[in-house]
Amino acid sequence: VNVVIASDVTDQAARNHLLLEEITGGLGLANDIDTEKDSILYQPWTTTQQLSDLDWQLLNLLYDRRVTPGMDTETALRALGL
User: Fold this and answer.
1) Residue burial 4-37, b: 16+ Cβ < 10 Å; e: rest
2) Distance spanning both ends of the chain, measured CA to CA
3) Which residues contact 43 (CB under 8 A, 6 or more apart)?
4) Which of 32, 29, 36 is nearest to 52 (CA)?
5) How much is the CA Rg of the chain, to the nearest whole Å?
6) How much is the pTM?
7) pLDDT tens for residues 35-59?
8) Per-residue pLDDT averaged across 10-15, rounded?
9) Cβ(7)–Cβ(15) below 8 Å
10) Exposed/middle/buried for 46, CB within 10 Å: 0-12, 13-18, 19+?
11) Alpha-carbon gap, residue 38 to 8, rounded angstroms
12) Phi and psi (nearest 5°) for 72?
């Protein structure tokens, strides 16, 4: 995967944000969030510089071995003990 960010029209904070957002998307969190302003996935433009607690929780759920592809919500919640 190549990530290309123009350095002539962005400052370092914007480049840091864009790289983190693209890496997070590459890990599997590709959809934007409209409600969590501190998330790297927040839809409106920000220069968030780190993953939020929610971002980390989503990544942990995505890679939790108890959750497998094809599970419906109810089955996944049971597997997670919720």
Assistant:
1) eeeeeeeeeebebbbebbbebbeeebeeebeeee
2) 35
3) 32, 33, 34
4) 36
5) 15
6) 0.85
7) 999 999 999 999 999 999 999 999 9
8) 95
9) yes
10) middle
11) 26
12) -85, 175
